[in-house]
Structures are given as C-alpha cells and as structure tokens.
Amino acid sequence: MRPDTPAENVDHHAEAARLERTAALYPEDAEALLLRAAAHLELADDRPAASALYDHLLSSADGLENPQLIRALKASNLWEYGHEAEARAIIEGVRMSAPRDPAPWVIIAEALESHDELEAAQETFTEGARLLLTDGAEPPRATHPLLFGRHRVRRMLGVAHDEWDTLADTLHSMPVSLDELHDPKRVWSLGSDNPAELEAEISRLRAELGAYREALSRPFPVAVLHWPAGELTELLSAYPSLDSEYPTHEEHLATIEASLRELSASGTPNLGIVTGTVPSYEAFAASEGSSPNDATLLPQYATTLAARGRATAWPPQTGAGCWCGSRRVYGECHGSRA
User: Fold this and answer.
1) How far apart are CA 226 and CA 248, in angstroms?
2) Distance between CA 178 and CA 175 in Å, rounded?
3) Which residue, among 71, 82, 8, 4, has the nearest Cα to 39 in the 3D structure?
4) Which of 52, 53, 26 is nearest to 37 (CA)?
5) Residues in the chain with pLDDT < 50?
6) How far apart, in whole angstroms, are the C-alpha atoms of residue 200 and residue 202?
7) Model-level pTM?
8) Contact by Cβ (8 Å): 283, 29
9) Is the Cβ–Cβ distance between 1 and 36 less than 8 Å?
10) Rounded to an integer, what distance in angstroms lies between the CA atom of residue 127 and that of residue 143?
C-alpha cells in the first residue's frame, strides 16, 4: 500500500496532489487513491496533512470499503508525531471492532511494536490471527504478515515457539529462516569488524528485502466480474445484446462461483471478484474506443478493475459475508454449494 521510494528521489507532495486530483475525477476509486496520497505525505514527513486526509475519508465512513484500515493508518501516523493518547484510543477501537481484514491488525500491531510495546503488539498479532485463521485450513496469503509479525515480536520477547510460530516458519519461503531474520542480536553484527559476520548479515538483509519486495509485487488477482442485481438490470436495459452473457442474475452468480472453483481446482492462485457498475463500464468502453455492447470488453473491464485494486479475494474469510451481497455468511450461501 505504501510507496517505498526514498523521499529524495520523489516529490511526495506533488505526487500526493496528483493523486488527490485523480480521486476527484474517479470517485469510485477515491478511497484507494487518497490512501496512497496520505502515504506520500507521511513519506514527506507532512504527518498533519496525512492525518487530515484520513479524517476526510472517515467523514464519509458510510461509503468506505475498509474504514478500520483507515483508522489503523491514522493511529500509526498520529503516534509518529506526538499524539500518543489519541493513537492508543484509536488502536483500542480498531481491536474492539474485530475487523475481518488482516491489514488493520498488522498496522496497529506494528505501531505498538515500533514504540516498544512488545507485549501489546504480541497480543494484537495473536488476537488478529485467532480471529482470521481456521485450524487445519491453509492460511490465506493476506494473513501471512500477521504470523510473520507475531513470530518477530515473540522472538524479541524471547518466548518459546508455539504452533503458529512453526506455521510461520513453514510459510516463509526465503533462504534465511525466520529465526535468523528475527534474531534480536542481529543488529550487533552490524558494528562488527569481522568481514565474515558482516557478510552473513548482508545475506540476511538481502533475504529480508526479497521477502518485502515479494509482498509488494504480488500480482493482482485473476478476477471474475460480478454485477449486482440492480446494475445488471440497468446494464441489460441499456445494452440488450449482452443478454446472451447474462440470461438471469441467478445464473450469473452461479457461473461466478463455478468459474472460481474451477480455477482454484486447476491450481490458479490469487483469485478474486470485482464488482462492476454501469457508469464505470461505460467509461471503460469509451476509453477503449468501443461500444459497451461489445461482450469482449467484459473480461478486459474485469482485469482493469483488478489492476486498480478493486478486487475482493475469493474465497472470503471464514465467517465473512458472501461476495454476492446477500448479507448471509459465505459458508451458508454460495460457499455451501461445493
């Protein structure tokens, strides 16, 4: 989420301003764009301006996809420029809300960790893992930072490994083990005059950087396009030639689930669902110089939405609502049709 380009190589204020202008042009993407703008402001060390952007987003909380993520980012930012009491209050509020997205848990736990609140950080990582991980199930990739962060903090606290630490070791794919990467004594070797010790530490840092870059460069999901009932009715009224693609809304939903299950069975990773709207689709067709009646645009539209960060991971987390918008738990809705 956060740009990692050094401030000396980028005008972060200018980039933040550009993203704010873009958000005004594309309100459906405003949340993601303004979060990136706030990250640039933090990198420019203009933390009050970043907080103002977070407040601006939270003022329209009813339309936000992930308000707890924004609150977590705001808390982390506030603590960095002296507003500890407010940051702690927000962190406690995020924990109490028990978000089903791993990102807010990771952000507030890392904020606590960076301010030497290691016990509280461990509790927060553990709380998030307990909520989001299911015994016996393969942890979704989005939850890996929870396990890695928990492992790191527990290593610093000097506590013995447990089952989740072992799981984190298993999930970690870099050549240097997590125990080595998270060794509190590693920093001592950086002041050593022994070339062998320095070389070993450089290897560890390269492995750690490789893991970080891998996390940042994850491909966007293979996404399937979903039309809510109202949007599909509007789409077919305006462009009846698409009837052959969507005979009924029920068949459309069943096809989405079947397609995703087939892709999963074939070993395709990182699957997701993107939700279309008629105005957004019409704008995409215009940008392609084509007519919305052209059915070949539909998969391209889905890919474009996914590339813009609009995809929701499939399958949903255990206990999460179904992707179809029925307000039922996924396991009791489309997830029951295995």
Assistant:
1) 13
2) 9
3) 4
4) 53
5) 1-5, 7, 187
6) 5
7) 0.62
8) no
9) yes
10) 12
